[in-house]
Amino acid sequence: MNGWTLDDMPGQHGRTAVVTGANSGIGFVTARELARRGARVVLACRDETRGRAAEELLRQDVPGADVRLARLDLADLASVRAFAEELPEERLDLLVNNAGVMALPRRRTVDGFEMQFGTNHLGHFALTGLLLPRLRAAGYGARVVTVSSGMHFLGTVDPRDVQMDGGYRRWIAYGRSKSANLLFVHELARRLAADGSPLVAAAAHPGYAATNLQTAGVRMEDRPWAERLVRAANRLVAQSADDGALPTLRAATAPDVRQDDFFGPRVMLWRGAPVRSVRARWTRDDRASAGLWAMSERLTGVVYGWPRGV
Predict the structure, then answer these.
(1) How far apart are the two ends of the chain, measured CA to CA in Å?
(2) CA 290 – CA 41 distance, rounded (Å)
(3) Given the residues 140, 168, 174, 304, the one annotated as active site
(4) Residue 309 carries which DSSP code?
(5) What are residue 70's DSSP bridge partners?
(6) Rounded distance, CA 237 to CA 215, Å?
(7) For residue 180, which of 128, 246, 106 has the smallest C-alpha distance?
(8) Mean pLDDT, all residues of the chain
(9) For the packed helices 124-138 and 286-300, what is the interaxial angle rounded to 10 degrees?
(10) Distance of CA 137 to the CA centre of its chain
(11) CA 305 → CA 18, 87, 90, 116, 195, distances in Å?
């Protein structure tokens, strides 16, 4: 038995999806395969030039694809709000919170947050809250899928120092932001289940997939030798972006997905067909998830009127 593949992916005709970070890597493959099966897909990208190139490539791969580009910078809450306000669709069947940054040198978002926490978690928290009424309007079958990482095992969110002012370590910051993704999904799923909503919140991670995520940090520091090393590792040991996108696509489309599910590659959190993945116990901590939720509402100014806290 080879496990879940694209052949198992159901048709998406009549569904509308937003995929963040759709210009490359896991996001591009996710958007392409949703479009291939009939979904209308909004490519939410920070860089419009790269977004246009991705849109053209997707249309070449999937002639007649119903896709369009919209600008979204998750490191700028004003951009997140503008994206939500300008989105014309009144109903949204799927939101894939895919975009992210990894192991960057210390940087701040436009709003002053540590870049990895601010982009990977707070930007998506705000986006989901602002789009929640449209996801509710879709009714049964609507989903929010957030892309985390196996690296979440590096650490959980420290509510006393979410900005890591006490000492910044890039990989710990990344791990904490990915734990924040899972805590967010856990809390959203808990609230949805308590409210009896048909909207499902799930998560996925790609394992070690060859994308430009790995090279961004070293490129920012102008370390060409490190970039060459990372690219070599991607060629030799990583799985492809196509394979890395399978857990996300399963979480987004498979009929057996449950609240707070977490999908990842079968083999050592690294590669293989997508299965329900192991996760750190702290990512299912109700107290921690509720605390992060309240903090995220305060930091972003996006208050979820629904689903209500429990």
Answers:
(1) 41
(2) 31
(3) 174
(4) P
(5) 44
(6) 15
(7) 128
(8) 90
(9) 100
(10) 21
(11) 22, 20, 18, 26, 12
Tell me the pLDDT tens digit for each residue of 119-136: 999 999 999 999 999 999
pLDDT tens for 288-297 read: 999 999 999 9
Within 8 A by CB and 6+ apart from 263, the residues are 202, 203, 204, 205, 247, 248, 250, 251, 274, 275, 276, 277
**236 alpha-carbon distance from chain centroid:** 25
Sign of torsion over alpha carbons 240, 238, 283, 24: negative
Tokens of 247: 């857990």
DSSP secondary structure string, 66-135? -EEEEE--TT-HHHHHHHHHH---S--SEEEE-----SPSS-B-TTS-BHHIIIIIIIHHHHHHHHHHHH
> Is 140 a known active-site residue?
no
Q: pLDDT for 26-57, tens place per residue?
A: 999 999 999 999 999 999 999 999 999 999 99
The answer to whether 278 touches 247, Cβ cutoff 8 Å, is no
117: Cβ contacts below 8 Å, ≥ 6 apart: 157, 162, 163, 164, 173, 176, 177, 180
CA distance readout (Å), 7 to 26, 33, 115, 194: 18, 11, 37, 34
CA 160 vs CA 163, 184, 292: distances in Å: 9, 18, 11
Q: What is the DSSP string of 188-235?
A: HHHHHHHHT-S-EEEEE---SB-STHHHHHHHHTT-HHHHHHHHHHHH
Amino acid (1-letter code) at residue 35: A
Among residues 239, 238, 103, which one has the least CA distance to residue 177? 103
Half-sphere exposure for 106 (CA within 13 Å, toward CB): 8
Task: Report the greatest alpha carbon distance in the chain.
Answer: 53
